[in-house]
Amino acid sequence: MTSRYASGMSVRRSVLGDSHVDRAEAAKTDFDLPFQALITEGAWGTVWADDSISRRERSMLTLALLAATGNFEEIPMHIRATANTGATKNDVMQALLHVAIYAGVPKANHAIKLAKQTYAEMEENR
């Protein structure tokens, strides 16, 4: 295990929560091990570990980029992560309004639908 992997796993746990990471780790196989190492070291150990911008800002950027590129599957996960990063519902809405203007209303509309559903689930599970 590299120090970047260890740092990435620590950041990943603090952003996504232990339960999420434990489930992902339990589902890991020999086939996806290289991919899991890549995202742990690259996304979490390099990008998310950099303190040049706050985790709140990274949440907003991540959600906007996921929506703008039509990668909707990870939006609920990153909405749940806002509970740990400090990005508020208003922050998320502002990011998604930018998506509407710069990447398209349908993409923003779908991302907002997913965010609403996820926030409702989060409220139910409190």
Automatic annotation (TrEMBL):
Q: Which EC class is this protein assigned?
A: lyase
The organism's place on the tree of life at top rank: Bacteria
The EC code for this enzyme is 4.1.1.44
- Domain annotation Carboxymuconolactone decarboxylase-like: ranges: 35-116
On whether Lyase is a keyword of this UniProt record, the answer is yes
Entries under InterPro entries matching the protein? 4CMD/NDH-1_regulator (IPR052512), AhpD-like (IPR029032), CMD-like (IPR003779), Decarb_PcaC (IPR012788)
Q: Which GO terms describe its molecular function?
A: 4-carboxymuconolactone decarboxylase activity
Question: Which keywords does this chain's UniProt record carry?
Answer: Lyase
Q: Which PANTHER family match?
A: 4-CARBOXYMUCONOLACTONE DECARBOXYLASE FAMILY PROTEIN, CARBOXYMUCONOLACTONE DECARBOXYLASE-LIKE DOMAIN-CONTAINING PROTEIN
Q: What is this protein called?
A: 4-carboxymuconolactone decarboxylase
Tell me the name of the encoding gene. Answer: pcaC
